[in-house]
Amino acid sequence: MTCMNLPDWNHLADRALNGERLDRQESLAVLNAPDDVLLDQLAAVYRLRRHYWGNRVRLHFLLNAQSGLCPEDCHYCSQSKISTAKIEKYPLLAKQEILSAADRAAKLQAGTFCLVTSGRSPSETTLDRVIDAVREIKANYDLKICACLGLLNAEQAQRLARAGVDRVNHNLNTAENHHDRICTTHTFGDRVETVENVKAAGLTTCCGGILGMGESPDDIVDLAYSLRELEVTSVPLNFLIPIPGTPMSDKGDLTPRQCLRILCLFRYLLPDREIRIAGGREVHLRSLQPLGLYAANSIFIGDYLTTKGQAALQDFQIIRDAGFEIENPGGNGAIHAENWTEAGSGILS
Ligand code: SF4
User: What pLDDT digit, counting tens, does each position of 30-84 carry?
Assistant: First the structure.
């Protein structure tokens, strides 16, 4: 600790590089640090980000392939059975619509196409139709596919793996302690079990959380520790968008600086993992979005599940202006700047 009783942020980064996990007191110090050391924290975690990911930003594109009509009661979600939010509700999209979205993802230079359906877990018919669409996308595009279909048993995960799905998203969402306050229709343990089934099927895992749901700093640390223990591959961090009509419409009181400290903590605790600034980026980080890239190495381009994202051209500008590069879909280099311009012709609004 320094004379101000704050840790030496660079020393913490050195230890994270050596594989050490920050202890609880150090983790809380990251979250509770005063605003005037924020740039020091970002500079320190940027060393980790640069070590593992260089200056590349990985783009993901999300399709809400089935919206609303969900029997679960996740309090943050506009698609739940207890939500009265005015959202579009529709059953699984036709294959052609899913393929059109994959085409848009490819044109936007996204490396990963995230196919999301609402619901507790997929029916046989839904799984069959998703698998059919996945096979066709894989045959036509150089895209990784991440499926987010709710709770999965071992057999469902294996079927997705055989179909060519690369990754499955299933978030822990929050700390085990806090989970009962955000959902009562399934448990934290159910979520962990799905992640274990996905890993056992040989798929990579996309698993993160939602911040701003009334959790304590200790809960945030617990969530990060759980994700580290589960050895997840990719960590989407959502900042709650308090949607009117959901029980959490009065939550989500985050400042851009708090969001940045949370991103710093996750980079310290998951130094070599893909950390993505997910939903709520525009709403909560606002003008500080570029600073988030010093901790995170990935973003969603385009819209979120039931809320709009900013124009892709704006994201491209942020990345370029801050001196970062877009990672190519293969994940092994950057896209040449002229190709960004090409992607900008007509499809970036
Ligand atoms: S998060 Fe998923 S499971 Fe929960 S209510 Fe929303 S769509 Fe249903």
Answer: 999 999 999 999 999 999 999 999 999 999 999 999 999 899 999 999 999 999 9
Cβ < 6 A, ligand 1 pocket: 70, 72, 74, 77, 79-80, 118, 120, 150
340 against 89, higher pLDDT: 89
User: Please, is 218 exposed, middle or buried when counting C-beta atoms within 10 Å of its C-beta (0-12, 13-18, 19+)?
Assistant: middle
Q: Whose CA is nearest to atom 4 of ligand 1?
A: 74
Quick one: tokens of 14? Answer: 């050195």
Name the closest-CA residue to atom 5, ligand 1: 80
Compute CA 190 distance to the chain's CA centroid, rounded to the nearest angstrom: 19
Report residue 303's pLDDT band, with 50, 70 and 90 as the boundaries.
Answer: confident
Q: Which atom number of ligand 1 is nearest to the Cα of residue 70?
A: 8
Separation CA 193–CA 37 (nearest Å): 39
- Looking at residue 335, its pLDDT comes to 79
Is it true that domain 9-329 has CATH number 3.30.1850.10?
no
| pLDDT confidence of residue 76 | 96
CA of 256 to the centre of ligand 1 (A): 26
Q: Give residue 5's pLDDT.
A: 85
Q: Hey, which residues does 210 pair with through a beta bridge? A: 238
pLDDT at 339: 65
Structure tokens at 121: 């877990």
Ligand 1 mean position to 79 CA, how many Å?
A: 6
The ranges assigned to domains in the chain are: 9-329
Assess contact for 32 and 85: CB atoms under 8 A: no
Joined together, the tokens standing for residue 218 give 């200790």
